[in-house]
Amino acid sequence: MKAIIVGGGIMGLCVAWGLARGGHEVELFEQGSLPNPLASSMDEHRLIRHPYGEHVGYARLIDEAYDAWELLWRDLGQRLYAATGTLALTGNGADWAERSASALASIGKPMSALPIDELPRRFPMIETKGVERAFWIDTGGVLFAQDIVAALVRHLARLPLVRLHPGTPIRSVDLERGRVITAGGAVHDADVVVVAAGAWVGRLLPALATRLVPSRQVVIYFDLPAKDRTAWSKGPMIIEKTGDVGLYLVPPMEGRGLKVGDHEFSRSGDPTAERAASEDDIRPLLERCRSLLRGFERWRTDRLKACFYTVTADERFVVEKQAAHGWVMSPCSGHGFKFGALMGLELARTLASGRDATAHARWAAGLEATAST
Ligand SMILES: Cc1cc2nc3c(=O)[nH]c(=O)nc-3n(C[C@H](O)[C@H](O)[C@H](O)COP(=O)(O)OP(=O)(O)OC[C@H]3O[C@@H](n4cnc5c(N)ncnc54)[C@H](O)[C@@H]3O)c2cc1C
Question: How many whole angstroms separate alpha carbon 162 and alpha carbon 156?
């Protein structure tokens, strides 16, 4: 089989990896450089964690996601991950952590409830003001996202079955025929075309533009005193919802930055526009950091980064067959990276075996335990 993939983010690269492992020919087209710094996948880190609110289907896939990353580490010859454990905090009527804990208990992965008065002893870097419930699970950690993407590009570039075309925007796709046309007018055909175009997907497939919505998100990298950096460099990752702003904190594992972001969707913005971010973008997030993080007055904003989610109404992934010879692959809503290796391997398996496309779409949407009927 020959496949054409549009997009060289984690999804396009991982499906290329899965297909090449199965002995299939792949041509991958990327509009920017490979890797493209503007891709959603290109940031220092992305989190993987079991707590998933009431989305038990995705919680259940985390073990398989870890297995898929293990396979990738073996193929790459390096492990681009650091374990941190996961601390989930809630208060002020928010109950995401409680919902996560009960969903995980139902699938045999219990979180431990931490008494609030134990928090300062265990995590002296955190202020407990506003925190009413705390839950802990030993699993979870940081995937070194941009290093993974760069290593995958290098790996794929060495494989005889794979041809990478950086700097080659695709102008149009014909998923009925399995055809793409580049901005330069070159026509390429294949048995299957997979559109993994991230936040740009609506430009190629306008019918999906209202379902897959670009959402500009700003994250903050902090410069912190050496003592605080040492304390945070062993983790934990924090997922917090105790006020109007819910935040996540990515600890500075193995020399990477400490990053804070939120999971409030802007549902606006244009991925092709200027990516500058300003203090206005982050004011509520800074306020929450001030009340949650001990010694925060000594921290300085190192840099802001504007990045794009591709959001669906229910935050479920869209990996769907669109026509006889074409698929769209959009696992995002701000939580897709952790599943990149798994989504790539499984889509490659479905494409190669002719497994039922509807079953695959339901699995990717977190609605079925397996990708086959
Ligand atoms: C701030 C932020 C924090 C996040 N945190 C997490 C997290 O902690 N954990 C987690 O699991 N996930 C997280 N995510 C989500 C995750 O990063 C995304 O789900 C994932 O990276 C999407 O990968 P992708 O390959 O679909 O898209 P992208 O990485 O954007 O790749 C798409 C590629 O397609 C290319 N392209 C588009 N159109 C064309 C065209 N016409 N021709 C050729 N090439 C084209 C683009 O240039 C781009 O390189 C986060 C995302 C953001 C923005």
Answer: 6
310: nearest Cα among 14, 10, 52, 13: 10
What is d(CA 276, CA 94) in angstroms, rounded to the nearest whole number?
A: 32
- Domains located in the chain, CATH noted: 2-45+145-211+314-364 (3.50.50.60), 83-141+213-311 (3.30.9.10)
Threshold 0.90, pTM exceeds: yes
The answer to whether 292 touches 247, Cβ cutoff 8 Å, is yes
Strand order in the sheet with 187-189: 170-174, 179-182, 187-189
- Report whether residue 6 contacts ligand 1, using a CB cutoff of 6 Å: yes
Compute the distance from residue 199 Cα to the ligand 1 centre, in Å. Answer: 7
CB-side exposure of 204: number of CA atoms within 13 Å?
31
| Ligand 1 center–CA 270 separation, angstroms | 14
Q: Can you say how many angstroms the Cα of residue 199 is from the centroid of all Cα atoms in its chain?
A: 13
Both tokens of 285, joined, read 């997030």
**CA 350, 361, 328, 64 torsion: positive or negative?**
negative
Q: What is the pLDDT of residues 13-65, one digit of tens each?
A: 999 999 999 999 999 999 999 999 999 999 999 999 999 998 999 999 999 99
* Side-chain half-sphere CA neighbours of 30 within 13 A: 22
